[in-house]
Amino acid sequence: MNDLTCPEAPAEALALDGELTIVQATALRERLLEWLPQADGRLDLSGISACDSAGIQLLLALSRSLRESGRTLQILQPSTAVVESLQRYGLDALRA
Question: Where is the STAS domain (predicted)?
């Protein structure tokens, strides 16, 4: 998975592409932990091609960590794969 800046996303947003799945969970977790201290909470997921329950779990953990420090997770431009996974688990509110 590559971390890319998406032209439509604000420069401060972390843009991810590839899979948000159990296969990538460890690497993605490490990247999110690096990002978390300076994170403004904006995450561009327009480049995500697949998302499973491990990916959703990472998003929930990230949301909780941000909330504990007074910030909010903002999912920008979620891909169809992300939207479908959030809907599957009843988490539509996470992308609001």
Answer: 14-96
